[in-house]
Write a structure and sequence with these properties.
Radius of gyration: 22 Å
Largest sheet: 6 strands, antiparallel
Structural class: mainly beta
Distance between the termini: 60 Å
Order of helices and strands: EEEEHEE
Helix content: 10-25%
Shape: globular
Strand content: 25-35%
Amino acid sequence: MPELDFNILEPTEDEVRSYEPLPDGWYKACIASTTRKTAKSGNDYLEVELEITDADHAGRRVWPRYHLWNSNETSKEISQRQFSNLVNACGLANCKDSDDLLGMHLDVKLKTKPGNGEFQPTNDVAAYRTAPGMTNQKAPIEATAVSLDDPPWKD
């Protein structure tokens, strides 16, 4: 077992994080990750990690889940609608790979979901919209024609 030779430090004010839900309202956010996971029920779902980028709450995160592969058709249809709203807010017409959403900016409307029993209150995403003045189009890759008769490295 490795021996540790220092005293544990007290956290600084910057390191103390609040896990209280954010106040209800609109926030600027960026899509940090997307992960396909399996629920206890055995159905797969897509978890999207949204990082809040507003100055007052920068770095806070919410994790909406989309039950796109649910065996319950109603649940699947609701999730497909919600995920479509997310994709549309990112300015995309379609999304065949959830990694296409990484780095996209949008506005999210958060609402507080009350806690029950052992679970504390959390934030749920109530709506999405395109962030004003934000363009999410990826920059096109410019192709430059190179003549093999006169390659640029020849000089």
